[in-house]
Write a structure and sequence with these properties.
Elements lengths: L1 E3 L2 H13 L4 E6 L5 H13 L2 E6 L19 H10 L4 E3 L3 H4 L11 H5 L2 H4 L3 H16 L3 E5 L3 H13 L5 E5 L19 H6 L2 H14 L5 H13 L4 E9 L13 E10 L2 E10 L10
Helix pairs in contact: 7-8, 10-11
The structure holds pantoate.
Length: 290
């Protein structure tokens, strides 16, 4: 496996392969790789000839009060996982390489980025959209893979790829969960023993919401109230949002339509966890996901 640190070498590698007709799959990450990333890498492997994983803790998607300095960076373990999974290139740029002095351009996706995570973390999605656009420009993949766990991020990336004609296929893979339902996340390592014990309440609340919809309930307020009550049975979890939304626009629904996404965020101590579930009402026409 090659480890590449500069945009110039990364782009040269990709350009050579593209000229040879090799298809390039790409999994952008911030490292601290877990089985969710592993499933993205494996899915990319099946679909492309060559595989690039980027490991870059992107400073512009953290606010000054967030955990940039403390974000886990187990680089040897991450490289070992990439090697094990047959990754061809680990792209590990530096912050200065990505954002040299004089850097100015910011990519924003205003409507999709406004609510939910965008409201809780005002600069977050501009940072994500900008770095993903840069990474696509450098790596020049045919296909990039994202986890459904970050549903809003995946929606926003699809939108920017369409809007800016980036010519990268986007494939979103289902969330990988621990046995008790907790969505895998690099931030789960921050949870103390007691916090870890109650963290699955978020996925439980979303599952209850989904059951209500599948069972025929269309009163969104009642569904959201039940999800919130499920969380609030445990006083040390605070529900930030639990919402029934349109799966494409992410706008809140007032009546459940054929398809919906349940989005949730909770805070346990200083740690925020997010999760989501897609729902197709049994009588609704299911539409293939893009
Ligand atoms: O999902 C992540 O790990 C990050 O937001 C991403 C897409 C790698 C951009 O920094």
């Amino acid at each position: 496996m090659k480890i590449i640190h500069t945009a110039r070498s990364m782009a040269a590698w990709s350009e050579r392969l593209r000229r040879e007709g090799v298809t390039i799959g790409f999994v952008p990450t911030m490292g601290a790789l877990h089985d969710g990333h592993r499933s993205l890498i494996r899915a990319a492997r099946l679909r492309c000839d060559a595989l690039v994983v980027s490991i870059f803790v992107n400073p512009t998607q953290f606010s000054p009060t967030e955990d940039l300095a403390a974000y886990p960076r187990p680089i040897s373990r991450d490289r070992a996982l990439c090697r094990e999974e047959g990754v061809d290139v680990c792209f590990e740029p530096t912050a200065l390489g990505m954002y040299p002095e004089g850097f100015q351009t910011i990519v924003t996706v205003p409507a999709l980025g406004r609510r939910w995570e965008g409201a809780a973390r005002p600069h977050h999605f501009a940072g994500v959209a900008t770095v993903v656009t840069k990474l696509f420009g450098i790596v020049q993949p045919h296909l990039a893979l994202f986890g459904q766990k970050d549903y809003q991020q995946a929606a926003l990336v699809r939108q920017l790829v369409d809007d800016l004609n980036l010519g990268v296929g986007i494939h979103v893979r289902p969330t990988v969960r621990e046995r008790d339902g907790l969505a895998m996340s690099s931030r789960n390592v921050y949870l103390s023993h007691d916090e870890r014990r109650i963290a699955p309440l978020l996925s439980q609340a979303l599952r209850i919401g989904r059951q209500m919809i599948v069972g025929g309930m269309s009163d969104v307020a009642a569904i959201e109230r039940t999800m919130r009550q499920t969380i609030e049975q445990e006083p040390s979890i605070h529900a930030e949002y639990l919402a029934v939304c349109d799966p494409d626009s992410l706008e809140p629904l007032s009546v459940v339509a054929a398809r919906a996404v349940l989005l949730g965020a909770v805070r346990i101590g200083s740690i925020r966890l997010i999760d989501n579930l897609l729902v197709n009402k049994p009588d609704g026409k299911s539409r293939a996901t893009r």
